[in-house]
Design goal:
Layout lengths: L1 E3 L19 E5 L13 H15 L4 E5 L14 H5 L6 E6 L15 E6 H5 L1 E6 L7 E7 L5 E8 L11 H12 L17 H18 L2 E8 L4 H10 L5 H6 L11
Parallel strand pairs: 1-2, 2-3, 8-9
Antiparallel strand pairs: 3-5, 4-5, 6-7, 7-8
Length: 260
């Protein structure tokens, strides 16, 4: 499986022709993205660069994190579905954003998008998003030969910053305060030992992954976890997940996957 990361869209990291037996996937944190081609602003520049990269490099699977859109407020003609229609012959898309409150405006910090293209998209049998409706991840279920199933997850973990009331972390804090007294039988139940949105993210994603694995699924997990590499690796090992970047490049010399 070919891989790329945040820096790839702005460079030319993939030069070789994709092998017919490979799947080429891309993870990108655009830090807001607009799905309207032709408008001259930073967000539309990002989507145009992404379009060119996906087409030129024959990308099968795209995961976007922190897209910063409340999909309920985006005009139909400006959605990710409309923007990507001419990119490839076929595609399937799953989005996630915080839907626990009333929609107010298009800009909403957080959220993810998962996109599958062409032959790869035909094998997607199911898809969904974070069960709490916080927009922390989107997922697709891939059917393979002999009934083999793989769940592909694009995740975004909120970072604790002073981004104000509209920040992703603050959004999730509000949710937790509203549902702290929910019964254990409720989908909104919050365990007593979970004190912050980052802990809730780890707790919920772990349970989601474990449930999929227990039902015979393989897991492909990619995301922006806003975590120190060593902490993230330990978390992955606890779940039996393999760090493919570390395996490829060495765990002590893994390349940076971000730019400042």
């Amino acid at each position: 499986m070919d891989r790329n990361h945040r820096q790839g869209i702005y460079g030319d990291a993939i030069t070789q022709k994709k092998d017919d037996n490979n799947i080429r996937n891309l993870l990108q944190n655009p830090g807001s993205i607009g799905f309207v081609s032709g408008q001259r602003n930073r967000e539309s520049y990002i989507i145009e660069k992404l379009k060119k990269f996906v087409i030129d490099k024959q990308i099968d699977l795209v995961g976007l994190t922190e897209v910063n859109k409340d999909m309920r407020c985006v005009p139909t003609e400006n959605t990710v579905w409309a923007a990507t229609a001419p990119w490839r012959e076929t595609r399937k898309i799953q989005t996630s954003n915080n839907t626990t409150g009333n929609p107010t405006r298009e800009h909403q910090i957080g959220g993810t998008v998962s996109m599958a293209f062409d032959e790869f998209s035909h094998r997607i049998s199911n898809r969904g998003q974070d069960g709490r409706g916080l927009g922390r991840w989107s997922w697709m279920e891939l059917g393979g030969i002999g009934g083999l199933k793989t769940t592909i997850i694009t995740a975004y973990c909120p970072v604790n910053t002073s981004s104000g009331l509209g920040g992703c972390y603050s959004q999730h804090l509000t949710y937790m305060s509203q549902h702290r007294d929910e019964l254990e039988s409720s989908i909104h139940f919050i365990p007593e030992n979970v004190a912050c949105p980052r802990q809730l993210f780890g707790h919920d994603l772990q349970h989601f992954v474990e449930d999929r694995v227990n039902n015979g699924h393989q897991i492909l997990l990619m995301g922006d976890f806003n975590s120190e590499y060593s902490v993230l690796r330990d978390w992955m090992l606890d779940l039996g997940l393999l760090d493919i970047i570390g395996k490829q490049h060495g765990y002590d010399s893994a390349p940076r996957t971000h730019t400042r």
